[in-house]
Amino acid sequence: MRIWLRSLAIWLFMVANAGGMCVIGWFAALETGTTVFLQLGLIGVGYVCGFMVDSLWDRWCWRVAVRLHLDDVWDGLCPHREHTLDDIWDWYVQRGKPLWLNPRRKRPAVRFQEAWKRFNDCRLIPPRRRRWQDIFWK
Prior knowledge:
mainly alpha; rod-shaped
């Protein structure tokens, strides 16, 4: 199963649980006269939404970082020849952490044969970076 399908299944499960907490909290609020249980359900919904936005943000930044690294390896601008997590992320940070790639950015004229050789010298499938790896690997 693709990674985004797993993420979608987890997110749907989390939203269903938070929604169930809201429904149970609503009935508990009607029964007890206090809104504490409803507030707990709403806090759960807020946490789940924040988690999903944070996860999507992390995936977006990593996708831009990989694309920038591959483009710059192709153009010969990047000194790294391997796709390690640290090399890709360091190159992304060094380039200013762009949110998207400018299609009109200046790129050098490169002969196809040289670029193809550079591209084949490095591994073509980069690993996926996870934010927690920065915490535990350093």
